[in-house]
Specification:
The complex is a heterodimer of chains A (159) and B (140).
Chain A lengths: L6 H5 L10 H9 L2 H6 L2 E6 L2 E6 L16 H20 L6 E9 L9 E10 L3 E9 L6 E10 L7
Antiparallel strand pairs in A: 1-2, 2-4, 3-6, 4-5, 5-6
Chain B lengths: L6 H6 L2 H5 L3 E5 L2 E6 L6 E3 L4 E2 L1 H20 L6 E9 L8 E10 L3 E9 L8 E8 L2 H4 L2
Antiparallel strand pairs in B: 1-2, 2-6, 3-4, 5-8, 6-7, 7-8
Classes of the chains: A alpha+beta (159), B alpha+beta (140).
Amino acid sequence: MSDPRNPEDETGSDGVGDWPGDAIAAGMVHYTPYARALGMTYVSSSPGRGTILLPWRADLVGIDGTDILAPGTLTALIDHACGLAIMAGLGLEASPATLDLRIDHMRPAAPRASVTCAAHVYKATRTIAFLRAEAWDVSADDLVATAQAAFSLNRRSAK
Amino acid sequence: MSTPIDLAALIATSPFGRFLRIETKIDEHGLVTILPVHDHLVGNVMLPALHGGSVAAFLEIACLLQLAHETGTIAPARAIDISVEYLRPARRETTFARARVRRLGRRIATVHAEAWQREESTPVCFLRSQLRLPEAIAGS
């Protein structure tokens, strides 16, 4: 489950951007058109970590009659939580872009259940961030999906 | 190849498919799935570029539609795992996808899909999926 180690040590507090705080973090979710269209809600962030909620909505269901969020909505949720985790560790100028993303769908989410995704940067070099993410509906002890991703970074302020 | 099924009717049974306004066409090489451009698909306003999550979801749907198209069943397959590679930024433009069923087993299918915008030869995104087949196919 979640890594008890201090993520700040892993992402390297090398002075590349300071985390601008919750208001801007929330804005990263709220002002991204696709995240907003899906109704994603900012939950929390800390250096190298980000958590976002995707509230259940009838028009995001995969198949009529199942009331289960489409797997594709979780892909966006996971991708966005990873982006948030990177910016929370490296600052907004990190300008992360997804290189690849792998998702294991362990089980479908429960009908009419919202899904939360928590992502963390477990290693960041100057140009690449490596992340793991977990998504659950009811309890973080019973996951619907896990993910692993690599993002390229554009750390313009880095030497 | 089974009797072709009505893909537009199949998409209509998916609220999320309707949300993305997915369309399909058949060309000389087979099925092409289309993601019409819309402002709400944008992930980066500055570039601007489509959200990686919208392109990936589109490719997942392209895989499911290809499977339905080839097997002639509308019973939904379920993703076991997916892997996405982002090859180029997807511009704020209509996006196309072609999927290939690489393996159709009794219970599991491997389906690959690639998305492009102006030129099919310069793909923007590639997705590989392992899908658990519905009983309707698995039992046949």
